[in-house]
Design goal:
The protein has strands at about 1-5, 10-15, 20-25, 35-40, 45-50, 60, 70-75, 80-85, 90-100, 115, 120-124. The protein has about 120 residues and is mostly beta strands. The strands form 2 sheets. Strands 2, 4, 5, 6, 9, 10 and 11 form a 7-stranded mixed β-sheet that branches. A 4-stranded antiparallel β-sheet has the order 1-3-8-7, with no helix packed on it.
């Protein structure tokens, strides 16, 4: 089993930056792809970014491309999401996910493990 714990969320103003972290523990050797998803109030959970085990393959939602950067440190079992130029529409609960798939898939069903989420609120 794998446990994922997110941190780094908070309340910021439009244009600010935040860095989210996701610490993985347990059977992390079984986890390859990792990703970030988000869910705004009243909306479905949506893909934000994903990264392959080596970090050589990344994938971003069009809405965050050029503003967000996903990275991982396998030695520390930690996933990151650097979020710059934040907008009010980025307000959501952000979830870390891990899966046994190769590559950087964008679909929720590709992921086997989920964190509890960290809340990000961007004020205008």
């Amino acid at each position: 089993q794998v446990q994922l714990v997110e941190s780094g969320g908070g309340l910021v103003q439009a244009g600010d930056s935040l860095r989210l972290s996701c610490a993985a523990s347990g059977r992390t050797a079984s986890m390859y792809a990792m990703g970030w998803f988000r869910q705004a109030p009243g909306k479905e959970r949506e893909f934000v970014a994903a990264i392959s085990w080596s970090g050589g393959n990344t994938n971003y939602a069009n809405s965050v491309k050029g503003r967000f950067t996903i990275s991982r440190d396998n030695a520390k079992n930690t996933l990151y999401l650097q979020m710059n130029s934040l907008k009010p529409e980025d307000t959501a609960v952000y979830y870390c996910a891990g899966g046994q798939r190769r590559g950087a898939p964008p679909e929720l069903y590709e992921y086997d493990y989920w964190g509890q989420g960290t809340e990000v609120t961007v004020s205008s």
